[in-house]
Amino acid sequence: MTKTKVLVTGGTGYIGAHTVVELENAGYEAVIVDNFSNSSRDVLDGIARIIGRNPLFFEADCADYESFARVFELCPDISAAIHFAAYKAVGESVEKPLDYYRNNLVSLLNLIDLMGRNERGSIVFSSSCTVYGQPERENLPVNETSPLQPATSPYGNTKRVSEEILRDCTISYKGKINVIALRYFNPIGAHPSALIGELPRGVPQNLLPYITQTAAGLRERLNVFGNDYNTPDGSCIRDYIYVCDLAKAHVSALDRLLDKSPEIPGGIEYYNLGTGVGISVLQMLELFKKATGVAVPYRIVERRPGDVEQVWADPSKANIELGWKADTPIEEVLASAWRWEKKIRGI
Ligand code: NAD
Ligand code: WQD
Known about the structure:
The chain is α/β, with parallel strands linked by helices. The protein has 11 helices and 13 strands. The strands form 4 sheets. It has a 7-stranded parallel sheet, sandwiched between helices. The protein has a two-stranded parallel sheet with strand order 7-10. A two-stranded parallel ribbon has the order 8-13. The longest helix has 21 residues, at 97-117. The radius of gyration is 19 Å and the shape is globular. The termini are far apart. The structure holds nicotinamide-adenine-dinucleotide (NAD) and UDP-4-deoxy-4-formamido-beta-L-arabinopyranose.
C-alpha cells in the first residue's frame, strides 16, 4: 500500500529528525528537505539506523523558490508538510535580523505557495511559546487563548508574523490551506537509541545542552542566569518537554489535518505543546544529578537579558483534541540527554 508522503522541511534538525522517526513509526513516508545550515548529513545515517531504511532526502534551501519547487516536481505526491526549517537562535537574531526575517519568512511563503498550488494545503507549523512572552501570573499555566505579547527578538517576531501569515492565507485560500500551529515550550532530550539528538553549534545557548557539556567536562561550570526572580527558589521556571513526545504530537496533528473529519475552524488551530509542569533551573540541576549521578558545578550570575521569569503550558487542548500527552518522566528525559552527550563525546 502506498504510504502518505509528508514533506518535512528542516528534517535533519533536532526536532525534525525525531519527528521523521515518529512519522515512519506511524506509517507515513517522510520527504526531508534541508540545506544543512544548522545540521549535518550524518543525521540521515542516524535516522536510517533507527527506521531501518534511508529516508527520502533533498538538499535544498526553502528560501530559494526554484530549488524548493524542484522538490515538488520530483515528488508530486506530497500530501502534507511539517515546516521546521528556520533559524532559531534568539541572540543571533538580534545581531542578524535581516538573515532571520529573510530565511524564516521567505521559506514559509515559498512553502505556502508550493503547497497551495497543488491543493495540498495541509501544513503543521513549528511555532513557539515565545509568542506568549511573560504571561501575567493569573494567566499561568498559559493556554491557547492567553494574550500574545510583542516579540522581544527578531526570531520571536518571525514566529509571531509567520502565524499571522498562515492565518491570513487560511482565510483567503479557505479550504485550500489548513494549518495546525504547534507552540513548543522547551524541547529537551534525545532519542533513546542515542543515534540522534541535539547538536548545538559552538557554545550552547540552551540550558540542557550546556548542562550535559559541563557534565562531560567540555565546560567548567553552568552559569545560572539569576536567582533573584520571584519564583520559589529564585531561578527561572520553564516547561521542559521530551523531544520524542513533542515529535509524536506532530503525527497526531497530521492525523487531524489529513483526517479533516473535525472541520478546522477558520482553517488554523493552535496547540500548546508542553508537560503542564514548570521546573526551575536549580531544580533541573537537582533532577539531572538524580537521573545521572552527575553533580554539575554551577555559579549564580547576572540575569540574561530577555529571559522571561516563568512560563509553563496548559496542554489540555492538545491532550483532548489531539489525543496526545507528554508523559515521559523527566528523569528518563535527562538520562537520554546524558546518553547522547556521552555518545557524541566518546565517553
Ligand atoms: P534546528 O536548527 O535543529 O533545525 C532546523 C533545521 O532547519 C536545520 O536542520 C537547518 O539546517 C534547517 N534549515 C534552516 N533554514 C533552512 C532553509 N532555508 N532551507 C532548508 N533547511 C533549513 O532547530 P530545531 O530546534 O529542530 O527547531 C525546529 C523548529 O522548531 C524551528 O522552526 C524552531 O524555530 C522551532 N522551535 C524550536 C524550539 C527549540 O527550543 N528547539 C522551540 C520552539 C520552536
Ligand atoms: C532556559 C532557562 C535561562 C542557559 C529559548 C528560546 C525560545 C525557544 C527555546 C526557539 C532560562 C536558563 C540557560 C544557561 C541558564 N527556542 N539558562 N544558563 O530561554 O526558555 O527559550 O529556547 O524557539 O524561543 O528563547 O530556553 O534553554 O535558553 O533557557 O541559567 O547557560 O535556563 O535563563 O531560564 P529559553 P533556554
